[in-house]
Amino acid sequence: MMYALKSSIGMVTAAMLVSPLALAQPDSPMQTQAGDAKVDVLAEGLVHPWGMAFLPDGRLLVTEREGRLRILDSDNSLSDPVEGVPEVFNQGQGGLLDVALDPDFPRNSLVYLSFAEPGDGGASTALGRGRWEDDRIQDFEVIFRQQPKVSGGNHFGGRIVFTPQGTLFLTMGERFKFEPAQDLSNHLGTIAHLNLDGSIPEDNPFVGREDAEGAIWSYGHRNIESAAMHPETGQLWIAEMGPRGGDELNLPEAGRNYGWPVVSWGEHYNGNDIADPPTRPEYADAAVHWTPVISPSGMAFYTGEAFPAWQGSVLIGGLTAQGIVRVDGNAEAEVERIPLGTRIRDVEQGPEGNVYVLTDQQNGKVMRLSPVE
């Protein structure tokens, strides 16, 4: 596997439904730069789990792409599907996607869900919220819809990230339609910046332009399934999937164009170059890019005490990488691969500082990385 830096020359080689008593243990501890770690399978039997969020009581909400929301209890049992979840477009990469708790959840009990929504013309990414009450979602309402709805089942994006300013970001793929990612009159291939009720902040970069959608924060993206807020700088970080090569780590800035499909560090699936050179001054270049791909999905900044050597760095789930890709907190380099031997869809830090991942499988799992005592 390889990764490349914007400032480097060339490429740089980089080094579940079960009973509580049936937790899988590795044959031996896994060596990491933060010391030996063990991997426990907490649950399995989840069908392509996609997103997760911890409730204040320590239980874990997990989405399944087919359209179910489940609760992983403290005894590692999985609940029946939670009631109140919206109908989803369950085709291809579409379905129920991310789940996130409102920053003021202890007071307002609001849960946010992103999902592929069916409708006239096909499907698009949507964002909604409802109240968490008696382990179900009440009064769910859609607060934002990607426009337009189009045919096909690829590239929905769907990650939800809250900001310190009381707003949120929603990532949206270009639905495998390519050119619309350069057209500000639609939401394909963009990141939306929204108030928590789905309305558009007045200081968004394209507000007031008749030829642009006011919700857009940045554009020229392909498919973003990794996103997180830097805990110290308040800067949004994303990792997006390239085509054949050219996965990117970006720090999206308001109003910037990230170039897809005009420029890319990757190539088309038929082997043809997308651009030569792979970047231009008018497009924001990637902070880090990967060829071969890692297929990034899920992202979390590590701030816990369980793995001190990881503090301040970002952990990115890798579908093709089949593990966790760790990047330094300055977005300068990949610094470690943590192999898990399976497609990783999401990564979260638990309240106790351990690391939790979802595996992207028909028999998907919730796994926990913790230090060997």
TrEMBL record:
Signal peptide region: 1-24
Top-rank taxon: Bacteria
InterPro entries: 6-blade_b-propeller_TolB-like, Glc/Sorbosone_DH, Quinoprot_gluc/sorb_DH_b-prop
Organism: Modicisalibacter xianhensis
Keywords: Signal
Protein name: Glucose/arabinose dehydrogenase, beta-propeller fold
Gene3D superfamilies: TolB, C-terminal domain
Domain Glucose/Sorbosone dehydrogenase: 47-368
Keyword Ion transport: no
